[in-house]
Design a protein that fits this description.
By secondary structure, this protein is α/β, with parallel strands linked by helices. The chain has helices at residues 15-24, 47-58, 74-81, 93-109, 129-137, 148-161, and strands at 3-8, 30-36, 64-70, 85-90, 114-119. Helix content is 43%, strand content 20%.
Length: 162
């Protein structure tokens, strides 16, 4: 079984993330979405909330998809899962520079796990979770960047944070 690990903070999950997940399903037998517990980034949603939202978002995509939180080194998590592939989405040159460094380090940690880059669909290239949150904080429309359910959750969380 070919297992692909798609790691990220997903704070919140965007239409771009969902597109990468759908496309990854064509490449591997199982996609494990690894929700990073990364408190250094100051997430809007807790890890448990992000896992819950992702499970709801992927429930109707079909295929073998697992959503699981992790707080370990990415390669250790991939090894625990017996993952063959790390799946990453690329939007722009800036993404590539960061991902290039990460891939080189991960390759040194485990040469048996490959990294596969999927270019963002042009419709989603500008979408970043960070920008979605900023637009929502400034009372802008985020409906074209995230699903209706996620848009409602983001608006509610931003409003309640004051």
């Amino acid at each position: 079984m070919r297992i692909g690990l798609y790691p990220g903070t997903f704070d919140p999950v965007t239409n771009g993330h969902t597109d990468i997940i759908k496309r990854a399903l064509k490449l591997v037998d199982r996609v494990v979405i690894g929700v990073a517990q990364n408190d250094d980034k100051g997430p809007l949603f807790t890890t448990a909330e992000r896992v819950e939202m992702l499970k709801a978002e992927v429930a109707n995509l079909g295929g073998d998809i697992v959503v699981q939180p992790f707080s370990t080194l990415l390669m250790h998590f991939a090894e625990e899962l017996n993952a063959n592939v790390i799946i990453r989405g690329l939007r722009a040159v800036a993404d590539f520079e960061y991902e290039f460094q990460m891939t080189a380090m991960n390759q040194r940690l485990n040469q048996d796990i490959e990294t596969v880059f999927l270019m963002a669909d042009p419709r989603h290239q500008a979408i970043a979770s960070r920008l979605v949150k900023e637009i929502a904080r400034l009372d802008g429309a985020i409906d074209s960047f995230v699903s209706p359910a996620i848009a409602a959750r983001v608006r509610d969380k931003v409003k309640n944070r004051g």
